[in-house]
Amino acid sequence: MKALVLDRANTFRYEERPIPQCLPGQLLVRMEAVCICGSDLHAIRGDQPLFSFPRVIGHEAAGRVAEVGEGVRGFSVGEQVCLMPCIPCGTCRACQRGRTNACARLNLYGVHQDGGLQEYLAAPAQNWLKTDRPAPAQEIAMLEPLTIGAHAAAKLELAPGDRVLVTGAGPIGISCALNAQTYGARVLLSDTNPGRRAFAAERFRLLALDPLDEHFTEQTAQFTENSLFDAVIDTTAAKASMEQTWRWIGQGGKIVFVGICGGTLELDGLRFHLKEPSLFVTRNSTRPDYERVMNFWRLGAFIPRQFITHQAAFDDAGQTLAAWTRPEAGVFKGVVLF
């Protein structure tokens, strides 16, 4: 089989490998689609801090079961599955409490172990989720980023009518916005990129404003009926944005940081304290997040294909993916098809 190996920044090569053996407890899956995450683009550029070369990237992956390992129940050859990429240790305190996404020794397919950009992937059955409806493979691969939004929204304990600001209108920001809406929340997106604001409005009917606009404060006041937000979800990973989130929440509001900021964050300690906010940081997602997303996908609340703007054939991906990292490529969400 062929595997696409990221050798170093912006440098891919195809490597011929034997098809992995399907061990007891595993599924061998023939890959059909891999969506490219923002963290993948950082890895390609060489600035993903959790990543090491060489590596087969791809953690947003879907395919069909090619072989069922000994002892595995509930799966059959030919069924469509999506990858749940977290590999928890199962023994640390977080794992024992059910917080497997925050495992002290967490690994991920496509980051710490080779991921989906190869023709076959063998992984434990617990890392695969069977879909209960036939669908294009790229839609199934898109379920993983939707679970990131589900995990963030779940932290907020939202109620109908709650007002939520999501900063950053990229794929994860829109995922967070759509998931917040499933609780009946009213959602406003902010992004400095006019193309992303237009994309959010046209494809998802989401209200998206420019936070640098001189009228932004007035616009948010109109949205919140001269109040502040009940919650803010920051997906920008930008220090300046994250440090200002508390200003947009009302008393007792909630903040979720989804993006990873590598530097030091500073807050106005007194004014932050006086609001008695709740601050959460999210990492990856869990099986209940997948189950929730699958349910709303089944109901038609999520249409994953709306995210995808670009696609590449696996045989051409070695050249295409490096080009997708450049802003002028205009890629909102790309997918590699096998």
TrEMBL record:
Q: What is its EC number?
A: 1.1.1.103
Q: Tell me the enzyme class.
A: oxidoreductase
Q: Does the keyword Zinc apply?
A: yes
> A Pfam family in this protein?
ADH_zinc_N
Q: Which UniProt keywords apply?
A: Metal-binding, Oxidoreductase, Zinc
Classification via InterPro entries: ADH-like_C, ADH-like_N, ADH_Zn_CS, ER, GroES-like_sf, NAD(P)-bd_dom_sf, Zn_alcohol_dh
Q: Which domain of life is it from?
A: Bacteria
Name the needed cofactors.
Answer: Zn(2+)
**Residues of the Enoyl reductase (ER) domain:** 7-321
The record's listing under Gene3D superfamilies reads: Medium-chain alcohol dehydrogenases, catalytic domain, NAD(P)-binding Rossmann-like Domain
GO molecular function of the protein, one example?
zinc ion binding
**Protein family according to the UniProt entry:** Belongs to the zinc-containing alcohol dehydrogenase family.
Q: What protein is this chain from?
A: L-threonine 3-dehydrogenase
* Source species: Anaerotruncus colihominis
Annotated gene: tdh_3
